[in-house]
Specification:
The chain is mainly alpha-helical and 201 residues long. The chain has one domain. It contains six helices and three strands; from the N terminus they run αβββααααα. The protein has helices spanning 7-19, 74-91, 97-110, 123-146, 153-173, 178-185; strands at 29-33, 44-47, 51-56. The chain has a three-stranded mixed beta sheet with strand order 1-3-2. β2 and β3 (51-56) form a beta hairpin. α1 (7-19) packs parallel to α2, α2 (74-91) crosses α4 and α3 (97-110) packs across α4. The longest helix is centred in the C-terminal third of the chain and has 24 residues, at 123-146. The chain binds zinc ion (ZN). Residues 82, 86, 133, 136, 191 line the site of zinc ion (ZN).
Length: 201
């Protein structure tokens, strides 16, 4: 069983986790239209206030963005599992205030708000971010496993790609010309599987 085979079940599982047993009128898991660029090819995003959105090109937006699409891709499935993994980390208390603070430093350094002084995340802050990212993948894996997924190659590839992308970003951040590197190459503020070749919160 591949992850995509269980996409609708994963979607419902994430909704129940976010909304409780009596689901909200409007799905808190939904598609969001966003034009992909080479630097920001899409992905998904978890907001601790209680929603997950999956980015799609405007031309690929489903008719109803609040229902799991029939043409769900492997990348979307992996990212939904991963973002839900972040939610599980929050509810289990492993998403710590220290991590949130480190993420704030990272996000601001990646896309400096106007007039705000920013700094590169320290090695300790980078480690906190990588650790939460890794945990979200491992939580996502457990969810899919409970949904009887048995084929893991694509999921593991996506996980590895994402974590290595974070490591590369951290390395680049420490270079003096990061400002320009950032503008040209960094993912946008949301989480993205960089260059499907090469995803915040
Ligand atoms: Zn993540």
């Amino acid at each position: 069983m591949r992850p995509t085979d269980r996409f609708p079940e994963l979607w419902i599982c994430a909704r129940r986790g976010l909304e409780g047993q009596s689901l909200s009128r409007l799905s808190s898991v939904y598609y969001y239209s966003k034009q992909a660029t080479p630097c920001d090819p899409g992905g998904a995003e978890y907001e601790p206030a209680g929603w997950i959105r999956i980015f799609r090109e405007p031309s690929r937006m489903p008719q109803n963005p609040f229902h799991p699409a029939e043409d769900a891709t492997m990348v979307e499935t992996c990212w939904l599992a991963h973002e839900y993994g972040h939610h599980l980390s929050k509810t289990r208390g492993t998403r710590t205030p220290e991590y949130e603070a480190a993420l704030g430093v990272f996000s601001q350094f990646r896309a400096p708000p106007h007039g705000v002084e920013v700094r590169c995340p320290t090695k300790a802050e980078q480690a906190l971010i990588l650790s939460e990212e890794s945990l979200a993948w491992s939580n996502g894996y457990s969810v899919l496993k409970d949904l009887r997924v048995t084929e893991w190659t694509e999921f593991e590839d996506e996980c590895e790609r994402s974590l290595s992308n974070y490591r590369t970003t951290f390395q680049n951040m420490e270079k003096p010309d990061w400002g320009r590197v950032c503008a040209d190459n960094a993912p946008a503020s949301s989480e993205a599987p960089l260059e499907a070749a090469d995803g915040t919160r």
